[in-house]
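Morning!

This is the sequence you dropped in the shared folder:
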Amino acid sequence: MFSILRPFLFKVNPETAHSLAINTLKFGNFASIKVNKSPLLETSIFNKKIFSPIGVAAGFDKNAEVYNSLFNLGFGFVEVGTVTPKPQFGNSRPRVFRLEEDEALINRLGFNNEGCEVVSLRIKKNEPKGLLGINIGPNKDSTNRIEDYAICFKKFLNLADYITINISSPNTENLRDFHQTKELEILIRSILKVKKNSSSNIPIAVKISPDLSSRQIEDVSEILVNNKVETIIISNSTDRNRENLSNINKFERGGLSGKPIENMSNKIINKFYNLVGKKIKIIGVGGVDSAKGAYEKILNGATLVQLYTGMVYKGPRIATHINNELIKILEQEGINNINEVIGSKKST
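The structure's back. Tokens below.
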């Protein structure tokens, strides 16, 4: 059905098409979809067992409206957001662009969301049926971004299975300054202080940029290991890597996601894995639209894998397709569980 509808959907503005997808998921009945749950794909993270390592990246369900529908589509976990303390419109439109020949998107949305109060109330009314992450960030006009992170962190402490500190969007001015050693240390320690004062055990993830130098990767790894951060999400979209793209939209300002950043993401996952080993879990994201692509990220060191742009191009059944094909790959290679191959690819 999606292959039939796709040409019509792609004639619609990308944000309008996204709204249609959210409304379809919100009001459609997806509970009857058969999901193949195999012990080959079963994994544990944050002291919880999930049936698949394939999840939805932040950015799709920004306002926590359809996470349970996404679980019904075969995703093992869902990350909602990015959520900021106050509601904000984001950057001016148009701000999302398809690059069809490149199977990519460029966006400069700017953390458009309904704010942490609305989102937290929505989650309270709609208990998650699976592992739920909540991605948080600061408001664009904030005078104290660390305080913004703290406000959202406290708001979602008891509602999420993990909370992601997003320091990596290229669409909020100077946000990536938090990758600098001093700024990252201050931010992480501030969040850990809030966590301690709240007597919480909520796991923390940090979502990083793909545009880091080797030295920055080493510095970020050291800080996260020293502060016992549980998870790194690698990576967000890039504001580089446009040289080999075909679509005219490649000249648009914003973060590039999809197939063009797949190899870029895999390399940085591998670099981080070789530095942190099993001390920190890695969630890999960037260009995944197939079982082969997901498997490659796991071989490079990811425990879990997220996607978003892949669903735009491959449709809502992408998780079930990936799960089924992953099972075939593991069976063919005689692997009992997908965790056995995490990080088994040699350093790149």
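Headline: The radius of gyration is 19 Å.

More detail when I'm at my desk.
O.
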